[in-house]
Design brief:
With about 140 residues, the protein is an all-alpha fold. The chain contains 8 helices and no strands. The N and C termini lie far apart (about 55 Å). The relative contact order is 0.07.
Length: about 140
């Protein structure tokens, strides 16, 4: 959005984007602040192109639909990951393990195997099989 408003990779675009990213990370209702900012731009600038107006409406809609999941300040306080990288990596690992050539799973079998693999990867196997705990 910043590039659409201020030009590709200009100092103004970077500053505008960084300010809104900071709102998301540091403010209690950062997503609502971003929505308000985008609405103000849409309503106050007369020289917006139709592409810019369409893009603004799209961004406002995106933030409005996802605002309840954008409590990054609280997430950071709870030491939760802010990005999707950890989840995407985990999904890729599971897909590699479960989608090998010639493997076919029923839903019940897939869910059971997924639970077992998760226990193993999270070093919690002993919760299911306490007698199998490694001797220290």
């Amino acid at each position: 959005m910043a590039n659409d408003l201020y030009g590709n990779d200009t100092p103004e675009a970077r500053q505008w984007a960084q300010e809104r990213i900071s709102w998301l990370k540091r403010r209690k209702d950062g997503a609502l602040d971003v929505i308000t900012s985008l609405q103000e731009i849409r309503d106050s600038l007369d020289n917006l192109t139709s592409k810019q107006q369409e893009r603004l409406d799209g961004e406002i809609g995106y933030f409005d639909r996802h605002k309840d999941r954008m409590d990054y300040k609280n997430g950071k306080a709870l030491d939760q990951p802010l990005g999707s990288g950890a989840m995407e990596s985990t999904c890729a690992q599971y897909q590699c393990r479960f989608k090998r050539t010639g493997q076919f799973w029923s839903l019940d079998g897939d869910e059971a195997f997924l639970a077992l693999q998760t226990l193993h990867w999270n070093e919690r196997w002993h919760l299911l099989f306490p007698h199998d705990r490694k001797k220290e």
